Target: DUF6708 domain-containing protein
Amino acid sequence: MVRDTFAVGMDGSTSRGAVLEHWEMVRRYMEEGPQSLPFPPLALTVSTETTLRNMVITQVSGQFSGFLSILMLPITLPWALFRYLAMKTCKRPVWPKDVEGACAIDPQDPFILEEPSYAGNAKTGGPEGDERLLAYREQAVKMALEYDAQRRKRFGPDGTAA
Model:
């Protein structure tokens, strides 16, 4: 039974506010539909293609940034290689026809998003879409940082009740 919390995914941030921003997007999508989102359409940045490039992007650049990512290559590159091998050798799920039929997406659905060809290659609809996505992310980060600051004031440096 879920009492207070459950996992909703993460963007790699340690900010509680960032997690709440992510959850707010999920909540609005589920309760009000995709048309209620502040950036229509939201960009997909993850590719499900099993390529060594995707595994390296996801495992190496997703874990560390800057000089630290280079320093950590001896650890993260084998991790990416093993992830690649695991993904290449695992069996893809096959759903029964009745499940596939019940979950079929209308080809005319205006909210269908194109999957990126590789991780991080978001399809935003060009420069205008890029600007809207960046503006949304900047606003979300600002709101998340404000939330974190308020939480630290109320609950102490780590944001939890004493």
The mean pLDDT is 77. Helices lie at 16-32, 52-61, 67-71, 73-89, 97-102, 127-155. The radius of gyration is 19 Å.
